[in-house]
Amino acid sequence: MKIINETLEKDAIDLCVNCLAKQGSVLLLPTETVYGLFCRWDDEVAKNKILNMKKRDGNKPFQMIIPNINALKNTNINITKNIQILVDKFCPGPITIIANLNTNKDSQTNTIGFRIPAFSFLISLMNHAQCSLAATSANLSGNTPAQTVEDAINVLEGSPNLVVNADKISGDPSTVVDMTTNSFKILRHGPISEIEIMEALCLQD
Question: Which option is the CATH number for 2-200: 3.40.50.720, 2.40.50.100, 3.90.870.10, 3.40.640.10?
Answer without folding.
Answer: 3.90.870.10
